[in-house]
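Q: Hi! First time asking for a complex rather than a single chain. Here are the components, and I think there are two in total. Is that enough to go on?
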Amino acid sequence: YPLHGSEEDAGMEVLQKYLENYYGLEKDVKQFTKKKDSSPVVKKIQEMQKFLGLKMTGKLDSNTMELMHKPRCGVPDVGGFS
Amino acid sequence: TFPGSPKWRKNHISYRIVNYTLDLPRESVDSAIERALKVWEEVTPLTFSRISEGEADIMISFAVEEHGDFIPFDGPGMVLAHAYAPGPGINGDAHFDDDERWTDDVTGTNLFLVAAHELGHSLGLFHSANAEALMYPVYKSSTDLARFHLSQDDVDGIQSLYGPPTESPDVLVVPTKSNSLDPETLPMCSSALSFDAVSTLRGEVLFFKDRHFWRKSLRTPEPGFYLISSFWPSLPSNMDAAYEVTNRDTVFILKGNQIWAIRGHEELAGYPKSIHTLGLPETVQKIDAAISLKDQKKTYFFVEDKFWRYDETRQLMDKGFPRLITDDFPGIEPQVDAVLHAFGFFYFFCGSSQFEFDPNARTVTHTLKSNSWLLC
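A: Yes, that's all I need. Here is the structure of the assembled complex.
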């Protein structure tokens, strides 16, 4: 497997978990991996970037990745806490 | 706030520390939690009491991985803690991931900072998108603990649920930031209003009272009203005196026998120190008022019916002091609360009265209410 490919996959996995845990993204792996450029996912990324004060690129850029790896509170940033 | 804005329907909240992390001595954990609660107590009418057994409103525990609430922790790093909005049972509780390395400084994960955030949730605050706020979800390891303070966003949030702290009748209930309410309804227009201290700061005038101050700028006629701690968290409330030495760009704050120094938003290192380092005798344990005159490069300290004069150039007390206030400022009552120098006049604040003193004529030229500067 190409090195960059697996790095990207790992990043997408972190992103998916982050959006699921803190931004109410529905837990649908297939939908996420197949439609990672789809507008609902991009919207969620933008929502996260806006909330955290990042540039709203809608993409998994290095600043977004860096912030997602920082320690944080486990309470979601949007929606309820079930 | 959380969806539906859940909040405690009472002002007295109980908490219990159910277990402890082994990373810190028990007293450090107790102290961190107490300080974290105090952060919220200072800006609300809420009070907290600790119980050692039974069900408290806020149950505080350390746990690893799955710990009984179906929201498991994730080992070291990432999720540090979580907490539940006010309510019965698990609601209100705060859980800390014991796979973190909890510390009372910033070498690990600082328990006080995380606890203050989590207890914000326990009281009903949701996450804030304001990166300066305590309720921002991402942990900031760079926070200067000595200067920790809530942001205005945190204060606004918690006060939207519980209101401001209960104050004594002459201070009344007021928001912690500038507002545009009818001045007649504000306590600043109470005819009984007195000040603890008055000082200039970079061209503005600050009027200190208990834990708050009014900030009067020449640019904006309406004064702002703020918590002292929202600007300078280490400064004391109920201060005795304050004065600005403009050529050092420093405001000095006095309370009891201690002196603090600030420069703009910055609290200067090396303070507080004893007022006796200025050369005041040991018998002086409190200064009523102080003023520094730029052109003279002298600072006057008023203590009961006397005053001392300090030479800012030599950094020494002038000889021949103390003198009686009435000898040099005839018409001024002993024991002044505060003094301000503006437009060539001294303004002495004594309770709810203010005396405009002309130093050339050596006479009181006007008697005003203390709050005349606040456009009541």
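A: The two ends of chain A are 39 Å apart (CA to CA). Let me know if you'd like any chain examined more closely.
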